[in-house]
TrEMBL record:
Residues 4-111 form the PH domain. It is found in: Cytoplasm. This is PH domain-containing protein. Pfam families: SOS1_NGEF_PH (PF22697). GO terms for molecular function: guanyl-nucleotide exchange factor activity.
Length: 111
């Protein structure tokens, strides 16, 4: 169903305060795929899951102290059915713009 890669990059997933996971994310036209880098061979990726972007709702989180997650910077929340994922980027552009561009891409490519 997903056929075109729109964006890829590194994101940090915040599991709980003090516990983070580095993930490689690939944004396709209909899904977001995330992988983990191999511990020994950094050029290998292990598939960890995917989320349907039609069901994703991105929410920007303000910089500063969060009640449950601690100190956040360049963070956003991805709400997907029963899952909540808090992710951070190294730059401030955020994934919200990326997901909106994927939504715009899908609308222009429909018949």
């Amino acid at each position: 169903r997903s056929s075109e890669l729109i964006h890829s990059g590194e994101l940090t997933r915040i599991v709980r305060p003090g516990k983070t996971q580095q993930r490689s994310y690939f944004l396709f036209d209909h899904q977001l795929v995330f992988c983990k880098k191999d511990v020994l061979r950094r050029d290998l990726l292990h598939y960890r899951g995917r989320m349907d972007t039609d069901l994703l709702e991105p929410v920007d989180l303000p910089d500063g102290r969060h009640a449950e997650m601690g100190l956040l910077k360049n963070a956003f929340l991805l709400r997907h059915a029963e899952n909540l994922n808090v992710l951070t980027r190294t730059s401030s552009d955020g994934c919200k713009r990326l997901l909106e561009s994927a939504d715009g891409y899908r609308k222009t490519k429909r018949w």
